[in-house]
Amino acid sequence: MSNVHKTTTSILAKVDSINFITMSPVFLDSLAVNFTEEGLERIMTLWIYSRWKLVCELMPALEKAVSLGQPATVYNVLVGAEISGPVDFENLGFGKKPTGMEERRTSAPSYTNMIMKHLAKEHPQISWVHAMPGFVNTGIFDNVKDSWLFWIFSSIVAFLGKFFGNSPEDSGEYMTYAMLQATPKETGLQFVTQNGDEAKVQPKFDFTRAEGEKVWEHFVEAALHKLFVIVPPLNACPTAAILRLYLLVLVSTR
């Protein structure tokens, strides 16, 4: 997360307007719940927090493009409208109790939709698109090593992907086409299929405005209003314990 801030700071130092932001980072190396050095659940960090922190910090440049009469589009590639699941509002961010991979996989898109709807309402002149990439032969499961059953499953998926999945190049063309065609909609958030067409289906779960605001507030607290630091282990140096305490106090007072 600290690297996201470094990136946005670097970008804004070089440009004052941005027309397109496209995001598709996904990485899996374990089915277990793991936390980053900054204390955030890893899937949530990569799929949710880092993406929308990037967008929020680059918002001035998007708004600048709008003021110049130019297109401004945020294009998020995750699962579109095809996959979404319930959200445990008592365990936002998965930090309070254990959760399975399936719950994290299906609830993350719901977090995404609620955050994007909030941003679309606040910035209606920007195009907000949530795209479904479909079956793309990217080797996403290659790094998962903690389950032999999942290794078998991923091997089968990789084999089938060679025959039935899109190549990254073809998928990229579909996604680029949809991104360039996007225009602001009265409905705010738009959904796109793996072929770059407007999705005919809507997410399975439709959350209330109050629930959406609760997710937005969680995102703001977890990703925007926090000073991210990587704390050294206690045995790293003689002063590490004092430094650790200082940093924890500093973070908690922000």
Characterization of the model:
It is built from seven helices and four strands; from the N terminus they run αβαβαβααβαα. Helix 2 (42-67) packs across helix 6. The chain has helices at residues 2-14, 42-67, 101-122, 148-164, 168-181, 209-224, 240-252, and strands spanning 20-23, 73-77, 127-131, 189-192. The longest helix has 26 residues, at 42-67. Mean pLDDT is 77; it is low at 229-254. With 254 residues, the protein is an alpha/beta fold. Strand 1, helix 2 (42-67) and strand 2 form a beta-alpha-beta unit.
What kind of oligomer do you see?
single chain
Work out the helix count.
7
Low-confidence stretches: 229-254
What characteristic shape results from the CA principal axes?
globular
What is the mean pLDDT?
A: 77
Describe the strand arrangement of the main beta sheet, using strand numbers. 1-2-3-4
- Measured as a percent range, the helix fraction is 40-55%
Largest sheet: 4 strands, parallel
Radius of gyration: 19 Å
Q: Termini, distance in Å?
A: 16 Å
Beta-strand content bin: 5-15%
Order of helices and strands: HEHEHEHHEHH
Structural class by secondary-structure content: alpha/beta
- How many beta-strand segments? 4
